[in-house]
Amino acid sequence: xxxxxxxxxxxxxxxxxxxxxxxxxxxxxxxxxxxxxxxxxxxxxxxxxxxxxxxxxxxxxxxxxxxxxxxxxxxxxxxxxxxxxxxxxxxxxxxxxxxxxxxxxxxxxxxxxxxxxxxxxxxxxxxxxxxxxx
Length: 134
What we know:
Blueprint: E1 3-4, E2 9-10, E3 14-19, H1 29-46, E4 49-55, E5 59-65, H2 72-90, H3 94-97, E6 109-112, H4 119-133
Antiparallel strand pairs: 1-2, 3-5, 3-6, 4-5
């Protein structure tokens, strides 16, 4: 399925992953639910499409699509800054866990996925991560 801009058609899909600062295991059900709600607002405001969002205890996985005029680094800047600000506002106790005032780490993983890409790609990535960390 292609999306259209004013002068282009595009079919971009990304698998992105980034951890919580200090790899703190803070992504419980309440935080994950809040992130998904904040993501809906980000989608509407910036024209991004979050196809799927999943959280482990200490990192988030997103399958997303957006106009090629937005770079992957812009996506991260938008998503990380807005979610962090809103999470600190909704859950002030997070500031006690993250003494540096940042919710997300600076680093990230990003991969392009074909139009046939799906959540199973994320599961494969996760299994490979488990093998390298054990």
